[in-house]
Amino acid sequence: MRYSALRILREGLTGNKGWKPVWREPEPKAEYDIVIVGGGGHGLATAYYLAKEFGHKNIAVLEKGWLGSGNIGRNTTIIRSNYMLPGNEPFYEMSLKLWEGLEQDFNYNAMVSQRSILNLYHSDAQRDAFVRRANAMMLAGADAEIADADQLRAELPFLDFDNARFPIKGGLFQRRGGTVRHDAVAWGYARGADARGVDIIQNCEVTGFDIENGHCTGMQTSRGAIRAKKVAVCVAGSSGRVMEKAGMRLPIESHVLQAFVTEGLKPVIPGVITFGAGHFYVSQSDKGGLVFGGDIDGYNSYAQRGNLPVVEDVAEGGMAIMPMIGRARLLRSWGGIMDMSMDGSPFIDKTHVDGLYFNGGWCYGGFKATPASGFCYAHLLARDEPHPVAAQMRLDRFMSGNLIDEKGVGNQPNLH
């Protein structure tokens, strides 16, 4: 079933009796060509592109809970490609281009809103760093714009430009950045994959891998054994626990990242704004709530909940640039489990076990990477070679010294 304005009109006139379920609820088969472990955004996107772009049909996606219960439904919905290093910038620019055509591609309203993203700077040194980043972005084919304080005063007069500690001197714009409805991304990819024959199996937890003579032949699940020619793990913050079942120890730590939503307010913030002297980022949803977040909680955890000191820290960051939000009531908060890699960049690679593949280590960048991650992972699974824009996202880069250290803070996941 294709969605259209004409279909909506027709269903409205006939009592909405013709709508069909968005995806099937199949029983798992005994064997598949490819099994994707993890039914989040990246796993569903991988299945979608495997079927659509590479012609694979005998595919299953296994999700231990329900679709949207993980990080795909626990983020601040931001999309952007304002990266600097060659190992990152082309990848995230590819992802942003896929976002731009996503709704037309899978015929689903994901509410892609390119309302811009602005990174504020507060010192001359930070300005120079942002100019360098902007130049790298433009050289890689992305858009970038440096705005001075006068321009920002005209566009965003509510910011605290004369803050004694953190005066706002300008910012780096990426006008093509913005936000997307996170759960609609999962539903759209699930619907598109299901329509192409992919089995999406919910409430199916992987409990072990069948590995014989260095080759992965399938897995044990809460719904029985499933054989597969290729197994693709894509489970975000649970990466360490799942890959441990295959005898692997990853260069990843899991941390909690909290996000928050205020009560509904009148339109005030036109795009996404980030604080340059701390870690705070904010946008305004279509319902009027301010959606914002900041640093990870710091300690290792697999719990989807955070602690109060981080709430205070994030609120302080918001107040530093926008004192006007001080009277807004916090409506709700949630926590996602971040798979923090040692250099802050992800992995899309084969493992040393034949037939077992891994996608993870996304840190803060998992949601914005969803389309490119799925496409590049599908490319790897279909052709057994990395996509050119993901060629540096290897598991062995710490052994070879080819790090993708975007922030330049070394092998400390809590600082990325």
Folded structure, characterized:
This protein has helices at 5-13, 41-54, 89-100, 102-106, 124-139, 149-155, 182-195, 239-244, 308-321, 370-383, 397-400, and strands spanning 31-37, 59-62, 78-79, 117-121, 145-148, 170-174, 178-179, 199-201, 206-212, 215-221, 224-233, 252-264, 272-275, 280-284, 289-300, 330-341, 347-350, 356-360. With 416 residues, the protein is an alpha/beta fold. The strands form three sheets. Strands 1, 2, 8, 9, 10, 11, 17 and 18 form an eight-stranded mixed β-sheet that branches. An eight-stranded mixed β-sheet has the order 5-6-4-13-14-15-12-16. A two-stranded antiparallel sheet has the order 3-7. The model has no long low-confidence stretch (mean pLDDT 95).
Tell me the helix content.
25-40%
Helix segment count?
A: 11
Quaternary structure classification: single chain
Strand content: 25-35%
| DSSP strand count | 18
Distance between the termini: 43 Å
**Morphology call:** globular
The sequence of SSEs as H and E is HEHEEHHEHEHEEHEEEEHEEEEHEEEHH
Mean pLDDT: 95
Spans of 5+ residues with little confidence (pLDDT < 50)? none
Largest sheet: 8 strands, mixed
Which structural class do the helices and strands define?
A: alpha/beta
Structural Rg: 22 Å
